[in-house]
Every structure is written in C-alpha cells, then in structure tokens.
Specification:
Number of helices: 8
Order of helices and strands: HEEEHEEHEHEEEHEHEHH
Number of strands: 11
Shape: globular
Distance between the termini: 23 Å
Structural class: alpha/beta
Length: about 230
C-alpha cells in the first residue's frame, strides 16, 4: 500500500511523497522500517516530539498535526491528528468495521454489564465476534488484557480486522466519554448505539455536566460515519 492510499478520506492541508507503507504506528517506540508514523497532540503529551525517533527507527512517512515539515521522509500535514489516525488506520486494514455488526455502549455506569449481556445474547443466537471494554477484550475465543476501556483507533481497527479474519460477525464495545471526546471512534459505522445513563463522574476531565453530556451526544461524538 502506498502513502497516498492511506490518506484517502483524511483532511490533508499539505503533503509530499508517496512511498510504499507496510504498517501504521502512533507510538514511536513501536515503529519499524517501512511504517508511517502518525504524530498527534494528546491530552498530556505531544507525539510530534518523537518524530525524529520514529524516522530513526525506519519510518518512511509522517502524518503530523504540528506546523513542522519532517526532513528526509514523506509527510502530510493534517488539522486533526486523531481523526487522521482513525482514517489512516481504517484504510490500512481495509475498513473491516463496514463488514461487522458493531454495537457501541456509552454512559457513566452500566457499560461493562450491558456489554457482557449483549455478547452473551449474541453468542446464544450463534453470532460471534469481539468484545471491547474495561474489564477485558475478547476476540472470538481469545481473552486479552484491556489497557483502556476504548482503545485508540489503530488498535480498534486491528481488533476489527482480527475478528473479521477469524470469521466473526459482531463487535460489542464500551465507548467511554473520554474516547468520544478524543475521537478515538471517529468514522466507525456503528449499527447500534446504546446510552445507559449520565451521573456526576469524570468532571475532572469534562469540567461541567453540560460538557460531559455533549461528549456523549451520540450524533456528534463519532458514533456515526463522517
């Protein structure tokens, strides 16, 4: 796959180069030769600080949301780093989410319980696939540790791809308010969206109840294809 193929559908303000790409990474410590590195500003760190490390590790292209043109590699400047990571990741894995039935569950409380209940119902109906949530991840018969309630978009697309390759047809996933605010689920074509409730948690992050509610407004927060 070539760099321009990965950028299809992403908002790009300037770009140069079109090398072959064999992988996507947003963590410079995991970059391998031939990868594209997506450098994006986060809540507590800025991936753009690690562009040089990624290039030294073999990255042949960089997608950045900073006003910096990396030297010696192909690059693309984008206004929204996490949105671009979501689009690039979906392109790299061939949009597996479009071939799966995906249910997203958001709200303050009850997400984990609802997710496990729905997975059980689907299994009883003979429909298998993946579960993503706070307690653990399931990919068909595999049980995996859950570093985050809702992973970054690249990790989600990888999980979707594994599920589809293994013959799965469903994904049931918790979608945290943090993930929605940070657009980790950007562009995922959810078939079903479930809202459990809204209580006074996570105000250290969202600041006010209005901001918290806005983050979980399903029609505005990434639960629909852009």
């Amino acid at each position: 796959m070539q760099f321009l193929d990965l950028l299809q559908g992403a908002e790009v303000t300037s770009q140069s180069g079109n090398p072959d790409i064999n992988g996507v990474e947003y963590d410079s410590r995991r970059v391998k030769p031939g990868n594209v590195f997506v450098a994006m500003r986060g809540e507590s760190s800025d991936g753009n600080r690690f562009i040089d490390q990624a290039v030294a590790a073999g990255a042949v292209a960089v997608v950045t949301d900073a006003d910096r043109q990396p030297a010696g590699v192909a690059w693309a400047k984008v206004p929204h780093g996490r949105q671009s990571l979501a689009v690039v990741s979906a392109n790299f894995y061939g949009y597996p989410a479009k071939k799966l039935g995906i249910t997203g569950i958001t709200g303050t409380n009850g997400k984990s319980t609802t997710t496990f209940l729905l997975e059980s119902i689907l299994r009883a109906a003979g429909r298998t696939g993946a579960l993503v949530g706070t307690i653990e991840y399931h990919v068909l018969e595999k049980v995996l540790p859950a570093p985050h309630t809702t992973p970054e978009s690249l990790d989600l697309q990888h999980l979707f791809s594994q599920t589809l390759a293994g013959g799965g047809s469903e994904v049931v996933m918790e979608v945290s308010s943090h993930a929605l605010a940070q657009q980790r689920t950007y562009g995922i074509p959810f078939d079903v969206a479930v809202f459990t409730n809204l209580t006074r948690d996570h105000l250290d992050y969202h600041k006010t109840m209005d901001e918290y509610f806005a983050a979980m407004n399903l029609s505005r927060s990434g639960l629909h294809t852009p």
